[in-house]
Design a protein that fits this description.
Blueprint lengths: L3 E6 L10 H19 L3 E8 L4 H10 L3 H18 L6 E4 L3 H16 L3 E11 L4 E2 L5 E4 L8 E2 L16 E5 L7 E10 L4 H11 L6 H11 L10 E2 L1 E3 L13 E3 L1 H20 L3 H5 L6 E7 L3 H14 L7 E5 L2 E3 L14 H7 L3 H9 L9 E3 L1 H21 L2 H7 L12 H18 L3 H22 L1 H4 L6 H22 L4 H11 L31 H10 L16 H15 L5 H5 L3 E11 L7 E6 L6 E5 L7 H4 L3 E5 L5 E3 L2 E3 L2 E2 L1 E2 L10 E2 L11 E2 L1
Parallel strand pairs: 1-2, 1-13, 2-3, 13-14, 15-16
Antiparallel strand pairs: 4-5, 4-9, 6-7, 6-8, 9-10, 11-12, 17-18, 17-20, 17-26, 18-19, 20-23, 21-22, 24-25
Helix pairs in contact: 2-3, 4-7, 5-6, 5-9, 11-12, 12-15, 12-17, 13-17, 14-15, 14-17, 15-17, 17-18
Length: 694
Amino acid sequence: MSRKILVTSALPYANGSIHLGHLVEYIQTDIWVRYQKMAGNECWYVCADDTHGTPIMLRAEKEGITPEQLIARVHGEHARDFAGFGVGFDNFYSTHSDETRDCANDIYGKLKAAGLIETRTIEQYYDPVKQLFLPDRFIKGECPKCHAKDQYGDNCEVCGAAYAPTDLIEPYSAVSGAKPELRSSEHYFFKLSDPRCESFLRGYTSSGVLQTEAANKMQEWLGAPGENKLTDWDISRDAPYFGFEIPDAPGKYFYVWLDAPIGYMGSFKNLCARNGLDFNEYFKPDSTTELYHFIGKDILYFHALFWPAELAHAGYRTPTKIFAHGFLTVDGAKMSKSRGTFITAESYLNTGLNPEWLRYYYAAKLSASMEDIDLNLEDFAARVNSDLVGKYVNIASRSAGFVAKRFNGQLAPAAAELPAIKAIQEAAPRIAELYEAREFAKAMREIMALTDAANQYVDSVKPWELAKQEGKESELHAACSNALNLFRLLTVLLKPILPVLAGKVEKFLNIAPLAWAEAQQLLAAGHGINAYEHLMTRVDPKLIEKLVEANKESLAPAPEQSSPQRHAEHQQKEAQAAAGDEAQCTIDDFMKVDLRIARIANAEHVDGADKLIRLTLDIGDARPRQVFAGIKSAYDPAALIGRLTVMVANLAPRKMKFGLSEGMVLAGSDLTGNTPGLFLLSPDSGAQPGMRVK
């Protein structure tokens, strides 16, 4: 009996590009969905861009466009990249939709009616420069546990400690660099600590819906029996905020993590309206359909605690299973822009690399666990060349030409009792179970073992030698026909991984789209095939090198740059040299220097430095710039805070013992030395941070 299945992947945030780390999840999900559809199940795959929150609002402001314009553009970019890697969503939508708003309001209203929503006055950090309340990730400071500098407001990336932003030592706004102020505001909370939620979650998270390691983590977060470690969840944010306004609460908005998973429902509701599906059949409490979420292990807390608790207490069904996966490393390390291994999906496609190479490589690494996987670029090329080209495609390329030239493109009867054929047919149900269980690496190992056996058959019959011998026509015909039947059966097994290549094979073999059941069938005698065209090329190592180079972000200083401790002195020497030899520059030379209006959000002495002041500069970006300026002899740091100046924004960053200097401020001085001192440039009134000086 056909199953009815709804599948989702986590929603990509509409504030950045899709990269190869993201694709681990979407390719894993797509493979599983394609298998389900091949198996004859009614399976729908939906997703959406996650479009709300402060980062979206700030980025749109920086670009001088509306948030709606930003998310529309990014949606197009995301859709392009997903399509490029064969991720076959039935609907790729947006959380900024009427459907998601309606579902969010409905769930909120039902939770409120159940007594699970309450308001409280809280103290929260406020940016006096940007005039907005700051999300935890937009507050940085010194970790209260290990005292590491520049850590986020919710957890330390050095020691892993979790804490409240108010626990940070010397906090500052990551938006403007200003010192944040504590202000009171009324917020709305989902009472996750309510005994009803705790009781439900204890049963739900231990029911088999999660992987073992995920279930164990949930028990840590829930606490021992009799101990309730759950805390209530702040689901509101104050204006200005890009999102959905809470009903009957002017100026209050749903926190992005409230409506993000509800976006699954919104996307599916949109699909239902277009395809005539019954939304309630999939989301009613007693639904017999199946609901699966594929997510990264970093968002397990939201999907395994908040989300099912919301659904259950708002009168909806809960997920059948939640599948969490690990992260991607490249060449054994975290993705790195400086090494060129923080690779975007767009750059991979633009380089000319076949996206199905990556689909296969990920499949060969993925399991049902939450372990991280590694993309080793050298191994990537070797494995693709060996498995896909040297083994799989090689079967067709060594036999198809003889059938076309000698036998008018028609096949001889297949040898149904051939051991290599029987082995594939017997293995198909086992491989189906591995696909179902998301044990793709095990499935690939078994498929490649069957491919080896198929090649051993071709090697044993040697069609290239039979073709040279008189009277061996029937043996040649049989050998090549058997080889192509083996190739077709292997294509059935690989189709969830390689849908584009499978489509080419279907065209070449002149057959209808392959379903899983056809792993038990053979092509009939006399079946006509089309002319063979090369199906897949080998990975060129030069393309890998090109890909890495395309993604490198150099942090090396420009050749002529002196140390940041002597920015002012360096400027003076350059000016003296220019005056002495009357050097000139072109307008193009001048335009290479990106001069920006900057507000000094903070200024402070640098311990151990005689000439330096540490400046935190707001140039209109989401993240402030840190610059070490040699102006201590001329200025008191406290007198600098709040004033405007001019900085070189595209000067290569320079590492120094005090930290990373990310630019240069401009100052004037007397070339003759008759007038001592340095004088920071100040723009006219009305200038705003981020404006370009030209």
